[in-house]
Amino acid sequence: MKKNFYAVISIAVLFLGSACKKDNVDYRSTANIYVVNATVDGGAIKVNPGAGKGFTYKTATDQVFGTGAVYGAFTGNTNITIVSSADTTKTIFNRTINLQPINTLYLAGQSPNIDTLYRVEKNFPYISQSQATLNPDNSMYIRFVNLCPNSPAVNINIRNSTTNEATNLTYKGITDFVKYPALTTTPNYVFEVRNATDNSLITSVTVGVSASRFKTLSLIFKGAIGSTTASPSVFQFNYN
Asked: Is residue 14 part of a domain?
């Protein structure tokens, strides 16, 4: 009888201990961190978004220059590590970030001098697919980012317009998202990047309306003026 009694007590203590441990579990919400690779001459990168012990760079996807990608993570203090794809022992970025639900990390500068621009995305203007289907909002949201390390301040306009969409945007400058019409009758947008001092044209980019409708996107001015390997240009990064 005593043996049965002690067995019951032992099981009860074990159960209570397990319950207490479960109560102390630190449950964290999921987060998205968007990483943009705009480091001149930096090559492709591999990103560890705070994954556990099972993470290996060998199977991680290469993210080439002039692209953006989204990585799943958890909110709260998270160690983000980025290495060179060519040499995974070469750490490009290693920092603990207090991640929020939506985050963007821009890698900029010119290798070996790496710059970063990190933003928590608040009031993110996301158009859900269900909203686009049931109640079409025929528009898109665009912001402009200057990640050209030796760039003068630039103005950005729509071709044949004298109105600036961005004015005196300096290196590592970033604008708010602005809503643009994207009707089936809307022509493609051609955005021109111009030297703010003399209005000379540096580069331009065409944003296809049909492919960008319902999207939230960044237009990122990258490269380096005078570079023979990465001349100034603009690439489009879609968040959705």
From this structure: no
State residue 213 phi and psi, 5-degree precision.
-60, 135
Structural domains counted in the chain: 2
Q: What is the CATH number of the domain that holds 90?
A: 2.60.40
> 143 with 175: CB under 8 angstroms?
yes
For residue 170, the enclosing domain spans 123-240
pTM of this prediction?
Answer: 0.84
| pLDDT per position as a tens digit, 146-200 | 999 999 999 999 999 999 999 999 999 999 999 999 988 899 999 999 999 999 9
Is the same domain home to 148 and 205?
yes
Residue 50: how many CB atoms within 10 A of its CB?
Answer: 21
Least confident segment among 2-6, 72-76, 96-100, 136-140:
2-6
